Amino acid sequence: MDIAELSDRILNGDRRALARAITLVESGRKDHRALADALMVKLAGAGRQALRVGLSGTPGVGKSTFIESFGMMLVAQGLKVAVLAVDPSSARSGGSILGDKTRMERLSRERSAFIRPSPSQNHLGGVARRSREAVALCEAAGFDVVLIETVGVGQSETMVAEMADLFLLLLAPAGGDELQGVKRGIMEIADMILVNKADGDLKATATRTCADYSGALRLLRKRPQDPDDFPKALTVSALEEAGLEAAWGEMQSLAGWRREQGHFEANRARQARHWFAEEIRHSLLARLETPWARDRMAVLADEVAEGRRGIGEAAQDFLTGLGS
Amino acid sequence: MDIAELSDRILNGDRRALARAITLVESGRKDHRALADALMVKLAGAGRQALRVGLSGTPGVGKSTFIESFGMMLVAQGLKVAVLAVDPSSARSGGSILGDKTRMERLSRERSAFIRPSPSQNHLGGVARRSREAVALCEAAGFDVVLIETVGVGQSETMVAEMADLFLLLLAPAGGDELQGVKRGIMEIADMILVNKADGDLKATATRTCADYSGALRLLRKRPQDPDDFPKALTVSALEEAGLEAAWGEMQSLAGWRREQGHFEANRARQARHWFAEEIRHSLLARLETPWARDRMAVLADEVAEGRRGIGEAAQDFLTGLGS
Asked: Which keywords does UniProt give here (chains A, B) (predicted)?
């Protein structure tokens, strides 16, 4: 299938074409990269826009259940929902946080939903580019909401926030008044905190935890892209499907405000610049992975290790050989 | 002063020459870099070797007091001790974890001790290269032990471990049985854990904490560079100057074993290779910081942000222009 045809089918909402295109952007082959590039430019021309919602939560907070309940609620409102996972750890474990669709059984059976497991990649930079392009593909295929899920591992949260319009942090009710050791850096990128499991015995704890986070969020420095009452914390129960409409209402209200104020588009443009710079850094460093580069570095490294050459001078020597 | 003279003076243990050389390696100027390189090669030829001891501990564990007491104990044994700080956060705060010498008043007055505050740098890579060269300079100046201190911020601990022969983690007694949230990655690079404040009311807690860490260390995967009983945890009291000789004995015993087994030299060679590769990556990415590169990236990034060009193709265009 050529790019024009693939593009047309995606724009027509053909799910098999979408899946195929995602496989294409996930490919490491050089000719595939060129095709993927052409496809992305072609689809960008269509100008379709979904709401890209990043979602992070450590195992145990009920993320799968939340995505399922939240996704079903959106579908019930007539919206089309895509779920993608960004999982930098899957390279090591060989597995995937969205390993199979049984995690979201109901949602995966919906015709208006599309669930794509995360690819096994061995490079975070590669994961990022591919995931971001997969998001844009879902957008072109006519999905209204693209949920980009990640576990809180290393820099995956920052990465997902850098490809989302909104970033949600899903947390569990905390015993005591400690804030579950949520890293300040993560708090600072969250647009909304959702305290899940606000049901049964945990309901009161969830409410208290939510108040704690509300307080913590108010202490953070105000960001220009936030209206007065954001970022905010809410309680939800994915299990009892409670609070999901309210949370969705808040997301829409935030996204709407950002659209009106110009922050929405400005953010997407900033993200494109960010990922472009990342792509360049990635390509530049990839030049160190050729057989010549590896061999030459090994020879020079020995000379440096033996104290025969200075590290800076040897590095310059290498870079000259590299053609830099 | 030329490099030959500077080198001679350092080898003669001239402290002012040492301080001057450290300022030279800390300089970002290109001509200074070349001089620093020449100096490092010259001094490496002398083949002097100190024991490089990395030390990490978050604020509040009594790190300054420990360094002072431990340093004084070494000095009393007739050893020369240098203390360097690696503080990637100082760039932001403008301050320095070794801001002045009043933190280690007694040690700073000792003729056999040399204390150097961390430079304010704005790049972790730069900090690393400079710190590592400062360590080598102290070594050449005849110091027997070089303590490389860091706070547990971001990747500074891994960085310090990569320039040390031994890596110590200084911890405070923990209330309860939780292990103070010490990151597993940090546990895995520690050769010894020292539980400080094993004095007064905290003595029993320190002993219990130490036992907890001993247990945790035993659960880690065995590393080839460790004899059977390492890594290990010990209690010390920097305040009462207790346990310091025992800790030093353990350090010597570990270093001795590693020397006999060839791990000591192998580790240093591996570190040199690591820093050489880092230097190359750093130099390569520095090419993106020229005015031409910044301007060109900005133009292309706009085209990418507007969806007019593919990210991969635009990146290739940029790299071609860069001469890569």
From this structure: Hydrolase
